[in-house]
Every structure is written in structure tokens, then in C-alpha cells.
Amino acid sequence: MAVKQYKLKIKRFDPERNAHSRWEEFSLSMKPSHRLLDALAKIKDEIDGSLTYRRSCAHGVCGSCAMKINGKNGLACQSLFKDMPEFIVIEPLHGFPVVKDLVVDIKPFLEKNEEILPFLINNTPPPERERKQTPQEQNKILQAITCIMCGSCTSACPSYQRNNSYLGPSALVKAARFIFDSRDSAEEERLDKVTQSNGLWMCHSIYNCVEVCPKNVDIPAHIIKLKQLAVKRKILKQK
Length: 239
What we know:
Blueprint: E1 4-12, E2 22-30, H1 36-47, E3 66-69, E4 72-75, E5 87-91, E6 98-100, E7 103-104, H2 107-115, H3 135-145, H4 152-156, H5 158-162, H6 169-179, H7 187-194, H8 208-212, H9 219-232
Parallel strand pairs: 1-5
Antiparallel strand pairs: 1-2, 3-4, 3-5, 6-7
Helix pairs in contact: 2-6, 3-6, 6-7, 6-9
């Protein structure tokens, strides 16, 4: 397979050396089948060992390597060179504090997801083996379950960029995943959390979130279902 020359322009930041970020360019020879993550590894291993980025599974499962690639959030492990131009601009996810280079502090993002109680709540006596649900019931939450919490959707959300107290699309999808789970019994408690002033009604259906989701989760559809449920329960105002 033919090797092609690419130029990567990376936004870098080292808090121990500089007060502000800087841009640095690297020229690499890569095959069309190579991933952007392979290029970052090549830079770190062969050119500049100080380059810092996150990675783990490298197979689109963990969400660790989420970053902004040519202006759009995505996973470096899913970005193939055959699908990209010869000049590639790479930045850390927008909206989160930058720790170093392409690594951002996702603690605020994780805390938002924790607020909606992202675990099964059912106070009835447990069955002998498992809490069952029909295939139809499972299909209602199947897509939401595929969220890998990479943070791409929340980072791309204008409402979150304007006000980072907003729960954000990822947390709302996580809330929908449990609220519409037939085995869960904490609907009222979670609805109370997502209808606070920093929650559901701050979503203006701009659709940036769904455009950057690496798992193609229809995020607005889940949020719309939450809004419909809130209206049904007559929760029409922010608390």
C-alpha cells in the first residue's frame, strides 16, 4: 500500500514551561490504512517524546483518544488517513481545561454524569437470578447504552461552552438510559435532577452533539424523549 506524506499541526501546551499554548508541525509518511492514533504514537516514539495524549483500547471502545480533528471532535483511533487531507489540524477537546497538549481534565464531565445517578436503582426484592426485560424494552435503551463517554458531544455543545454548569448531552443520554430502563424505579428522582436549572431545558436542539458522536447515538432523540416525559409529568419550568 502506497505511503503518503502528511503534515500534522498540533496545538500544544505545557504548563510547566509556557503560560500559553503554541502550534507545532510534524511531517510524517503514513499509509492510507494507518490511523491518526498511529501517527501520534510515531511522533512520540520517534520525534518528540514529550507529546502528550490519551489512549487506551485503540479500538473505539474506551473513548480515551477523543480530540478535535480538523475542527470536528472525533476519536484518533477511528480516524484513517485515507479519509483525511494531507494537512491535519489537531487540538484538545474544547470546553474542558487543558492539562497538557491533547490531554484535557475530564473530571467536570464525569461529575456531570455522576449527578444523574448512572446506575440501576430498584428497591424491590431481587429475583433469584436476574431482573429480566423483554427485547422490546431493551431496544428502548439499546442505543443509549452504546455511549462510551468520550466527551465529544458535551465538548461540541454550544450550551455547555456558554455555561459549563449545564449537565450536557452525555449526562442527559445517560439519564435517559436509566429512566427508560424497565428494570429501574428511580424515574422521579432522576427527572428531578435533569429538570434543574442546569439541565434538560438548556438543550436548544442545535445537533452539534449527534454530528460528532463516534457511536452514532441519536442524542437529540433521547433528550426529546426526556422533554416529552417532563411535559407529561407537568415539569415545565427550570427549578
